[in-house]
């Protein structure tokens, strides 16, 4: 249950963080949002950052007009 809540929160924070003009900025902002979500849930910060970065990059690639 805890992992599914963490995954939902990280996906939500990645969607909220969807910004940045370059791929590097998108990865950085997503990583920050993912790490923040993981910290709130007392999860693994590195994993949270990785999931957030990947989520934000994928979101921005799929929806470039929203970034």
Structure description:
By secondary structure, the chain is mostly helical. The protein is built from 3 helices and no strands. It has helices at residues 2-16, 23-40, 45-62. The longest helix has 18 residues, at 23-40. It is elongated, with a radius of gyration of 11 Å. The termini are far apart.
Keyphrases for this structure?
mainly alpha; single chain; 76% helix; 67 residues
Gyration radius, rounded: 11 Å
Poorly predicted regions: none
Say how many strands there are.
0
Q: Return the structural class.
A: mainly alpha
Shape: elongated
Concise overview:
This protein is mostly helical and 67 residues long. 76% of the residues lie in helices and 0% in strands.
What is the topological layout?
Elements: H1 2-16, H2 23-40, H3 45-62
């Amino acid at each position: 249950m805890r992992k599914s809540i963490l995954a939902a929160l990280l996906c939500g924070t990645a969607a909220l963080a969807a910004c940045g003009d370059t791929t590097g900025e998108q990865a950085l902002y997503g990583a920050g949002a993912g790490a923040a979500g993981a910290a709130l849930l007392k999860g693994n910060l590195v994993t949270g950052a990785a999931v957030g970065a990947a989520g934000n990059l994928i979101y921005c690639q799929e929806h470039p007009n929203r970034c």
